[in-house]
């Protein structure tokens, strides 16, 4: 509809009457179109408010931070288990040598 207003010998008032909208609304749409507001709708993508987009970005950042924290905790626990398992083996070896030498 906005594109029709740029055709030769077509007025905004004529296009507005044709589509049943107020001419001032059509002028507002033309202004938005010239500022690029209709690019997302032209590409048939969903349009979301900028505030919602920022809130979702913050949520993703927080989830990534928490995931990194949990991953780090998991790595620390895994290393602790390896150290504990290694010291148990060392302890068992030293005990078995002590028992074997006393015989």
From TrEMBL:
<dbReference type="GO" id="GO:0003677">
    <property type="term" value="F:DNA binding"/>
</dbReference>
<dbReference type="InterPro" id="IPR009057">
    <property type="entry name" value="Homeodomain-like_sf"/>
</dbReference>
<protein>
    <recommendedName>
        <fullName>Transposase</fullName>
    </recommendedName>
</protein>
<dbReference type="GO" id="GO:0004803">
    <property type="term" value="F:transposase activity"/>
</dbReference>
<dbReference type="InterPro" id="IPR002514">
    <property type="entry name" value="Transposase_8"/>
</dbReference>
<dbReference type="Pfam" id="PF01527">
    <property type="entry name" value="HTH_Tnp_1"/>
</dbReference>
<dbReference type="GO" id="GO:0006313">
    <property type="term" value="P:DNA transposition"/>
</dbReference>
């Amino acid at each position: 509809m906005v594109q029709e207003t740029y055709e030769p010998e077509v007025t905004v008032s004529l296009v507005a009457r044709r589509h049943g909208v107020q001419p001032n609304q059509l002028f507002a749409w033309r202004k938005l179109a010239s500022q690029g507001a209709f690019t997302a709708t032209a590409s048939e993508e969903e349009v979301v408010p900028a505030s919602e987009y920022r809130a979702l970005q913050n949520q993703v950042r927080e989830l990534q931070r928490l995931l990194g924290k949990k991953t780090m905790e998991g790595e620390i626990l895994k290393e602790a288990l390896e150290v504990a398992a290694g010291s148990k083996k060392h302890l068992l070896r030293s005990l078995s040598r002590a028992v074997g030498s006393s015989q």
